[in-house]
Amino acid sequence: MRYYVMEQDEFDSPSSEEMIYVFEHERKNTWGEIRSLEDFTAKCLFTESRDHYMYRKNAVEDIDVFELEEKLKEELLPLQEVTDDELLQLKEGFSEQIKPFIFPNNIIRRAYAYEPDWNDRFFVAETEEKYFGLYWCTTA
Predict the structure, then answer these.
(1) Least buried of 67, 110, 121, 124, by fewest C-beta within 10 Å?
(2) Count of alpha carbons within 13 Å of 36, Cβ hemisphere only?
(3) Is 133 exposed, middle or buried (0-12, 13-18, 19+ CB in 10 A)?
């Protein structure tokens, strides 16, 4: 899986206190741990959590990375389906910001990892070729 993180200094308004993660994983890699959209979502959550914990390493409990990933998989709620209108809003809202990454076409399945909030959205999608994830958050 590959991912890219964009932080506030990379946006037009650097005072926005925003962060965007873009995740991609080719589906042809069936020998790995990612075999479903749920597996991909758990791996994305793990990656974001790991980065967050490393940044605040003195403020979190000491936990093995494998334990953390398993804990996140266990706590993963059922994915929430994204409507056509919601997908269109996501594309319009983030396509320019995430270049050179692009929202995939021919999406088979699309969902939120959890209930989106005004300052926190985690979108995942699946096509025949790959998995795609977009995590956006702001503290503003």
Answers:
(1) 67
(2) 6
(3) buried
